[in-house]
Amino acid sequence: MTRSEFLKHAVVFLIILLAGLVILNLIFSQITTARWDLTKDSQFTLSPATEQLLDRLDSHITVKVFLSRDLPAPDNQLYQNLTDLLAEFESSAHGALSFEIIEPESKQDEETAKGFGLRKVAVSHRDTDQRSMRMVFKGLTVIYKNAAETIPELRSNDNFEYLIAKSIVNLTEPAQKKVGILTGFGGLAESPILRDSMADVYHEVFGKRIEVTTVKVTETCTLEPRTDELLILNIQEKLDDCARYALEQAAFSGTSLAILQSPTQGDYRQPDQPRINVETDINLLLQNTGIQLTHDLLLDRTHNLVGTQFTEDNQIPVSLPALPIITQIDKTHPITQNLSALVLPFSGTLQIDQDQIRANTADLQILAMSAPEAVTRPSGGDIAVDALQKPRPDEKNGPFPLIAAIQTRATSAFKDKIPAKADTTQWIDHADHVRMLIIPNGEFLFTNKIIGYSDTFAKFGIHLFVNATEWLVQDNALIQIRNRALPQLLKTPDAQTQKRIIWINVLGIPALVLLLMFCLSRLRRLRQIKIKKQFSSPENL
Q1: Which domains does the chain have, with CATH numbers?
Q2: Are the beta carbons of 342 and 460 closer than 8 angstroms?
Q3: Highest mean pLDDT among 29-38, 163-172, 286-295
Q4: What is the distance between the alpha carbons of residues 101 and 342, in angstroms, rounded to a whole number?
Q5: Is the sign of the CA dihedral 486, 195, 446, 372 positive or negative?
Q6: In this predicted model, what pLDDT tens digit does every residue of 95-109 receive, in sequence order?
Q7: What is the DSSP string of 481-497?
Q8: How far is CA 475 from CA 162, 177, 471, in A?
Q9: pTM listed for this prediction
């Protein structure tokens, strides 16, 4: 081998060696402290649902963003984040969408912003050693034909893709859906405060697309008014024949049912007091579906929330078996897509009759199951932490179905016994597509810090409920987009995995060096053999 060839091989070897060292150190030295993102959706590109929405645009969309200059952190990133995102919208719309970011400086700019319904909002501002409040613009408006929808305030942690896509849907697909809350049977639905707060949530999430109203059973056994979805939320009184007839006929005529019903009722202010069984006859409404609510209490002594018990000397962390953490979730269904966990406080379980499901040719999807370690015991009675932590002989072993979504064929249960007061002029004998969501728990929507149910898990419950609303009214356009706003499930590698990675890091670099040295040695050996053959051939003698 000539000197120049040797130098060339040496340079190549050094380059490969250095590149290998850099790559291995970047990967393995960082991964031991990294957190792994377990969500499936990319956070850096538009979701397929947004791209499909933009493909359907039949007229030009204009997005005008009004952002004041020099916004304090964390809002100082709004300009760049919105610019990048709206550039993606513009590119995917293929000329059907354009955007403009305006930093209002003149009186005319401010009047333009106010004309779209934007108003200045207060932000905290630090100037040298003094903190003060500053009034700024940080909102946007989406303009379509002769209509506009405004987002008055943008926050740094907002899901901007969802907010903009929702505005486009509201403008381009204005058909309104109605969601009703059944009243007249006691429970949470009788509270005006609750109904108003739910209406506020729906307005914030859906805008004008979904209207919330209260529904009651009339004297003629019909529901008034007619809605696209009906919510039955932890009622406390029995559904009589008239009510069940009204609910059945509404379901047969296209109203989807969301049944959220806990088997027991308790006093949140005294969580250690016994809970009382509630009998509502909902199972009579479900008798032909193949699904029944069971009067039991779900306990999981392995996977549950941890609360605090106060003693005379200190605070002791205690396991809360009646607040199980549910992680076996069907992430392929629109309702539970992207949900990483749920907590169902003092929940019952579902009983599934597979023979009935097959007879109805129903599309049944179990959206959540308890852990195999979970157990159930008859509902009601003592729910003190100590009592729940001790196994009993009447407990049954899991896993258990907890949330079911079903589309089924159904026949009327009132064919020969229609209530006397019922209006039968539009009686329906059967229906091919009855759509229901059934959860044996109606308490997961509301934070209760007294029992250890925090805001974090209530947000997951609300997200499930909002997704369910869109599925039940058969309007799934925004579910995939909004799911990206869920808290990210981040996981640190366990100790054993970290140890393996460290050993790979320690041994990988020397192994790579030895491999490269072997390859170089082998290359030189082959070169020597080639030269030897070349000079030992008769032609060269």
Answers
A1: 3-35+493-540 (no CATH), 48-170 (3.40.30.10), 179-490 (no CATH)
A2: yes
A3: 286-295
A4: 39
A5: negative
A6: 899 999 999 888 898
A7: HHHTTSPP-EEPPPHHH
A8: 15, 9, 6
A9: 0.69
